[in-house]
Write a structure and sequence with these properties.
396 residues, binds flavin mononucleotide, TIM Barrel, alpha/beta, three-stranded antiparallel beta sheet, mitochondrion inner membrane, 2 domains, Dihydroorotate_DH_2, globular, 12 helices
């Protein structure tokens, strides 16, 4: 067993080393690294099955084979994040680095912050494969991973080790979930707060993934109130000065009445949250061009989710009077998309699916476009844009 593991590790290392050398030679030979990635690397990577290319991308970030971004963030992208300073407001969304293997590599790509997870208390394999699908025509993904996770202890160890690295100063959030067969769903989250509260810059209560049966029901008023009360209690039991921010990640499939209920819950001191993440993937298939995928079970992300997620950001911004910071996520693939989410009410944004189609240099491109749009809009800083056109993004 040990030998098999060693062999598999050596093989991964071999693949990454050969891949990295070829990549670096290619980049050196080609003076436009962005175009090189879009034209050569990403189409080749997309020849692999979706989960295999996801794993390869995580390995590439883990072994830091991408060249470090030398892009200097414009000062108008600098922002505050729960007492920390971010060089830019763009993060990698949960689900890419589920097990905290690739944090430093992701920071190298130019992200302002990194969210790892979803992490479950005990290790679990998730759903049977295949469970990730590219919908290229729609620039979308359907996934039903079902919280494949190395579990709290393995992820804690990796995160703690990463934090000890020299010059490490990344803002890292940990996205918490529950085990599939748990009999005590609330205490799975409570355990997550206790385990990761001391090492995370923020925690996310993820009750919005569509791939774990019954999970999204935890967004209902009574269940959410109970969950968040216990989560808050667990946080207050953490060591002094570890008032770790707690964010709630929501599904885009909620009705207005659900949103009102959620706001009523999070306004109560006992069940408050410090921020919202809007949104997770959708079970809706309404906006698909390629209808072959309509029946594929799982959560849909990318372009078809974009408008709904922006609309829901505006709804939550209005319902909370702009008092609770929102991380906007769903279908962002350009600076314009990010800008619109910020106008709708997001203070920060995250991306995932577009990276699969556009490659890692998308991060620099989005930052560049966003910075220009902020200036063109007559704003001094990204924070000044937040919520400025919120009402215009509300559902018609
Ligand atoms: C393959 C895949 C796996 C995901 N896994 C998780 C996860 O474990 N936890 C979570 O909260 N969100 C997860 N998400 C959702 C993303 O974090 C994000 O909310 C969603 O994809 C919308 O952003 P996007 O359109 O930029 O991808 C996953 C998304 C994808 C595509």
């Amino acid at each position: 067993m040990e030998n098999a593991k060693k062999f598999s590790r050596m093989r991964s290392l071999g693949i990454v080393t050969v891949g990295a050398s070829a990549l670096l030679m290619g980049i050196t030979a080609y003076n436009n690294k962005d175009r090189f990635f879009r034209t050569f690397v990403m189409p080749v990577v997309r020849l692999l099955p979706a989960e295999a290319s996801h794993n390869l991308a995580v390995l590439a970030c883990k072994y830091r084979v991408y060249p470090v971004s030398d892009y200097q963030d414009d000062v108008n992208l600098n922002t505050h994040f729960f007492g920390r300073l971010l060089s830019n407001p763009i993060g990698i969304a949960a689900g890419f680095d589920k097990n905290a293997e690739a944090i430093a590599g992701l920071k190298d790509l130019g992200f302002g912050f990194v969210e790892v997870g979803t992490v479950t208390p005990n290790a679990q394999e998730g759903n049977p494969k295949p469970r990730v699908f590219r919908l290229s025509e729609d620039k979308a993904i359907v996934n039903r991973y079902g919280f494949n996770s190395d579990g709290h202890q393995a992820v804690l160890k990796r995160l703690s080790e990463t934090r000890k690295q020299e010059n490490f100063n990344a803002v890292v959030g940990v996205n918490l979930g529950r085990n599939r067969d748990t009999m005590t769903p609330v205490s799975d989250y409570v355990q997550g707060v206790k385990v990761f509260g001391p090492v995370a810059d923020y925690l996310v209560i993820n009750v919005s993934s569509p791939n774990t049966k019954g999970l999204r029901d935890m967004q209902s008023k009574a269940k959410l109130a109970e969950l968040l009360e216990q989560v808050n209690e667990a946080r207050s039991g953490l060591e002094k000065n570890r008032n770790v921010p707690i964010l709630l990640k929501l599904s885009p499939d909620l009705e207005v009445s659900d949103l009102n209920d959620i706001v009523a819950v999070i306004k109560r001191k006992k069940s408050r949250v410090d921020g919202l993440i809007v949104s997770n993937t959708t079970v809706s298939r309404d906006n698909l061009q390629d209808t072959n995928w309509t029946a594929e079970a799982g959560g849909l992300s990318g372009e078809p989710l974009k408008a709904r997620s922006t609309e829901m950001i505006a709804q939550m911004y209005q319902l909370t009077n702009g008092k609770i910071p929102i991380i906007g996520v769903g279908g962002i693939s350009s600076g314009q998309d990010a800008y619109q989410k910020i106008e709708a009410g997001a203070s920060y944004v995250q991306i995932y699916t577009a990276l699969v189609y556009e490659g890692p240099y998308l991060v620099e491109q989005i930052k560049d476009e966003l910075s220009k749009l902020i200036t063109e809009g007559g704003h001094s800083n990204v924070q000044a844009v937040v919520g400025t056109k919120s009402k215009s993004y509300l559902p018609k």
